[in-house]
């Protein structure tokens, strides 16, 4: 049954459980490592959550619509290269900040064209794009990292308004914008109806193709915004940029209670899922677990959560795999 | 009796060599429940798909309020005031009742170019419709997934009413319902007609048909073989038309 309270920050059982899991993880890691429970480390965790949170918001919309995009990480990478090049060319900082979302939205448009116009299942279409984009990153970087980029975007992170960094404002605004679109506009209703059943949505007179295009473009723009933040804080773009981001995003969103089959989602859950994932990754690293193991933890969590959902009959399962009710 | 809302003249539908409908003439009147009966493959479904704009006829014409119309899509039919309630209800189980009733035609207000839903108005309008239909659903904010089959039919009927449908086509509305639920849906069907809607009901259930229909039309092998006022006929006679045992049908099928 759907959560009927839909306030902008209201919590349901799943979200309270996540909150408890985050708290528990914080307590365990604080005991296990003297470096974990410091203000500096908390800031690091929040800092490391920014890109994942933005990409996760887009992924929440995609999954709620019954879609998916496994190429988001690489889309962020491509956008990051463009942001980096703009920085190198000493473009105006405001324009540079906009390069990310614009490139991301354009790539989202390409994804939509492939998946919607080509009538290809989203997971397969975006997997194909993932392969193409990965090579594109290779070619664009010419085998060399972008590193030591100019500090043109540091204002984005450094400037404060009323004592709160501009970056925090941008993230809160992105969250509110996605929440409003999902819960307060016809677009959100249409998206959820498509996630429930594309055929029924069509019979109800919903412009299905238009909504699917819009969702892929929004998700792309959010990945592009993530690229702006990425370049602003690391000032380099490496060859492997974003390679585990799609996995992290899907895991965080599914942890948060969004249905992998579509039709049901939680934005608060996504925020908590992102935080839990980043806390676990950070805590394990501080306990001396090599970062090589991070995708194992993420992948294991994703499979674990889905298995529990299948066993508790929240998700129906057919002998052939996923089935619709 | 008032002028017919819709007149079908010589409606024929061929799929390649197969003639699914042959020269069907009939009239549908406002405020009347018209039952379409017939065996599987008799042409009922093809006929309502023509009415609903899902098929275009190979021959013949449809007149609405005396004006010829040609539907190229279900959307055209919907804007002409024809709503179809499919056997597989096109409701989104994950959305609330009021969201479903307005889905695709939401009330909205524009704030800085962003179309915001007018949720309160939609809720009130749906609460009013549910009350008017005596649907006994108290909360228009309940998710449709939590409703029973009969309550879902009521939501689909609300949706049709909300679109100001003048003709509501109901395809086997009681097929999957328990007895008490069936009674409820049948009384909803009557209430639709009393509100001035024309209702076309497709059913296999003779008892349902004789309870709500004003007029009964029987299809057999793509033709209209009988048209009776309910008061002038009885279930046995209708069954003999459906199976082809009636002398009139035999005579008709011999001549062709």
TrEMBL record, chain A:
InterPro entries: ABC_transp_permease. It is found in: Cell membrane. Keywords: Cell inner membrane, Cell membrane, Membrane, Transmembrane, Transmembrane helix, Transport. It is a multi-pass membrane protein. It holds the Pfam family BPD_transp_2. The chain crosses the membrane at residues 16-37, 57-83, 95-116, 122-141, 153-182, 213-233, 245-276. Its main location: membrane. One of its GO terms (molecular function) is transmembrane transporter activity. One of its GO terms (cellular component) is plasma membrane. CDD domains: TM_PBP1_transp_AraH_like. The complex is composed of two ATP-binding proteins (LsrA), two transmembrane proteins (LsrC and LsrD) and a solute-binding protein (LsrB). Part of the ABC transporter complex LsrABCD involved in autoinducer 2 (AI-2) import. Probably responsible for the translocation of the substrate across the membrane. PANTHER family: ABC TRANSPORTER PERMEASE PROTEIN YPHD-RELATED-RELATED, AUTOINDUCER 2 IMPORT SYSTEM PERMEASE PROTEIN LSRC. This is Autoinducer 2 import system permease protein LsrC. The lineage of its organism: Bacteria, Pseudomonadati, Pseudomonadota, Alphaproteobacteria, Hyphomicrobiales.
TrEMBL record, chain B:
Keywords: ATP-binding, Nucleotide-binding. PROSITE patterns: ABC_TRANSPORTER_1, ABC_TRANSPORTER_2. It comes from the Bacteria. The keyword Nucleotide-binding applies. One of its GO terms (molecular function) is ATP hydrolysis activity. InterPro entries: AAA+_ATPase, ABC_carbohydrate_import_ATPase, ABC_transporter-like_ATP-bd, ABC_transporter-like_CS, P-loop_NTPase. PANTHER family: CARBOHYDRATE TRANSPORT ATP-BINDING PROTEIN MG119-RELATED, SUGAR ABC TRANSPORTER ATP-BINDING PROTEIN. Belongs to the ABC transporter superfamily. This is Monosaccharide ABC transporter ATP-binding protein (CUT2 family). It comes from Phyllobacterium bourgognense. The lineage of its organism: Bacteria, Pseudomonadati, Pseudomonadota, Alphaproteobacteria, Hyphomicrobiales.
């Amino acid at each position: 049954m759907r959560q009927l309270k839909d306030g902008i920050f209201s919590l349901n059982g799943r979200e309270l459980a996540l909150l408890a899991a985050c708290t528990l993880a914080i307590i365990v890691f604080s005991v296990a490592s003297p470096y974990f429970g410091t203000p500096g480390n908390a800031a690091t965790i929040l800092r490391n959550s920014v890109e994942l949170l933005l990409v996760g918001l887009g992924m929440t919309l995609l999954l709620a619509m019954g879609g998916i995009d496994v190429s988001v990480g690489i889309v962020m990478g491509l956008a990051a290269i463009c942001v980096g090049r703009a920085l190198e060319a000493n473009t105006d900082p405001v324009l540079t900040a906009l390069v990310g979302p614009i490139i991301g939205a354009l790539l989202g448009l390409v994804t939509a064209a492939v998946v919607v116009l080509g009538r290809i299942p989203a997971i397969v279409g975006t997997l194909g794009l993932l392969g193409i984009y990965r090579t594109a990153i290779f070619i664009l970087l010419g085998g060399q990292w972008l590193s030591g980029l100019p500090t043109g975007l540091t204002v984005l992170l450094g400037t404060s308004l009323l004592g709160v960094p501009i970056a925090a404002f941008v993230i809160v605004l992105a969250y509110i914008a996605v929440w409003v679109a999902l819960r307060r506009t016809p677009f959100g209703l249409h998206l959820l109806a498509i996630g429930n059943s594309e055929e029924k949505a069509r019979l109800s007179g919903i412009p299905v193709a238009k909504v699917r295009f819009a969702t892929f473009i929004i998700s792309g723009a959010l990945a592009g915004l993530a690229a702006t933040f990425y370049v602003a804080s690391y000032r380099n773009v490496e060859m492997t940029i974003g390679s585990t981001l799609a996995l992290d995003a899907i895991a965080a969103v599914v942890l948060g209670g969004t249905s992998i089959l579509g039709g049901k989602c939680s934005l608060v859950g996504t925020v908590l899922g992102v935080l839990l994932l980043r806390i676990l990754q950070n805590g394990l690293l501080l306990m001396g677990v090599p970062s090589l193991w991070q995708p194992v933890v993420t992948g294991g969590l994703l499979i674990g959560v889905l298995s529990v959902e299948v066993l508790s009959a929240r998700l129906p399962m057919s002998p052939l795999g996923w089935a619709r009710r | 009796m008032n002028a017919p809302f819709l007149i079908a003249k010589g409606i024929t539908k061929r799929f390649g060599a197969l003639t699914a409908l042959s020269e069907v003439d009939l009239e549908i009147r406002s405020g009347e429940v018209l039952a379409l009966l017939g065996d599987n493959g008799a042409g009922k479904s093809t006929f309502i798909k023509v009415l609903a704009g899902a098929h275009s006829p190979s021959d013949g014409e449809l007149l609405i309020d005396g004006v010829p119309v040609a539907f190229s899509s279900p959307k055209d039919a919907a804007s002409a005031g024809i709503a179809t309630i499919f056997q597989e209800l096109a409701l989104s189980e994950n959305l609330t009742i009021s969201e479903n009733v307005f889905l695709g035609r939401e009330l909205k207000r524009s704030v800085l170019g962003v179309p915001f839903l007018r949720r309160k108005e939609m809720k009130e309008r749906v609460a009013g419709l549910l009350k008017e239909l005596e649907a006994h659903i108290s909360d228009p904010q309940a998710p449709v997934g939590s409703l029973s089959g009969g309550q879902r039919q009521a939501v689909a009927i609300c949706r049709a009413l909300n679109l100001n449908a003048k003709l509501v086509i109901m395809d086997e509305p009681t097929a999957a319902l328990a007895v008490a639920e069936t009674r409820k849906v049948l009384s909803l069907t009557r209430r639709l007609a009393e509100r001035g809607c024309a209702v076309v009901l497709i059913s296999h259930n003779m008892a349902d048909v004789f309870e709500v229909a004003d007029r009964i039309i029987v299809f057999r092998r793509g033709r209209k073989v009988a048209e009776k006022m309910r008061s002038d006929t009885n279930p046995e006679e209708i069954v003999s038309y459906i199976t082809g045992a009636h002398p009139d049908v035999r005579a008709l099928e011999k001549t062709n």
